[in-house]
Specification:
The chain has one domain. Strands 5-6-7-8 form a four-stranded antiparallel β-sheet, with no helix packed on it. The chain has a three-stranded antiparallel β-sheet with strand order 4-3-9, with no helix packed on it. Strands 1-2 form a two-stranded antiparallel sheet. It is an all-beta fold. The longest helix is centred in the C-terminal third of the chain and has 4 residues. Helix content is about 5%, strand content about 35%. InterPro entries: GH116_N (IPR024462), Non-lysos_glucosylceramidase (IPR052566). This is Non-lysosomal glucosylceramidase-like isoform X2. Pfam families: Glyco_hydr_116N.
Length: about 160
């Protein structure tokens, strides 16, 4: 995911999963302009259910629970067990026991880079991969929802 010279957001994504939900935000929610969100839903056979955005609650979100929109999502992550690593052109985030204490999620991201080739290296693309490890004894179903905001008008 990248921005071009005019600030427009571009995303190229190949997805091998059951479903993807794409959400476009309204004009009033511009503060999510350059951000993507990942929501995780965990359901264990013992009845335990966990849902959270994989991001600490934004200070720009209202404190009160919203009736609809992104403010009503589950912002339960405190970030104590999450680590972001960046080593261009790669980055990765490890969620170790957060939001579910028996689940480890690793998100890898790479932006193509060709030395001495600015034109092709500036293409607005990224590849995301996710590795999930159930470290508990209870079987689990995990669903990831990847959403992002786009800049400008939707035509």
């Amino acid at each position: 995911m990248h921005n071009d010279y005019a600030g427009r957001l571009y995303l190229m994504m190949y997805v091998n999963c059951d479903s993807v939900i794409i959400t476009f935000f309204t004009e009033q929610q511009r503060f999510f302009h350059h951000m993507f969100l990942l929501q995780v839903f965990v359901s264990r056979l013992n009845g335990k259910i966990v849902s959270s955005v994989l991001c600490s609650r934004s200070s720009q979100l209202p404190k009160a629970s919203a009736a609809s929109g992104i403010g009503c999502w589950d912002w339960n992550l405190n970030g104590d067990k999450s680590i972001y690593h960046a080593l261009f052109p790669r980055s990765w985030t490890v969620y170790d026991g957060e939001p579910d204490p028996e689940l480890r999620i690793v998100s890898h991201q790479i932006s193509p880079f060709i030395p001495h080739n600015y034109k092709e290296s500036s293409l607005p693309v990224s590849v995301f991969t996710f590795t999930l490890s159930n470290q508990g004894d209870t079987p689990t179903d995990v669903t990831l929802v990847f959403t992002w905001a786009v800049a400008g008008e939707i035509s």
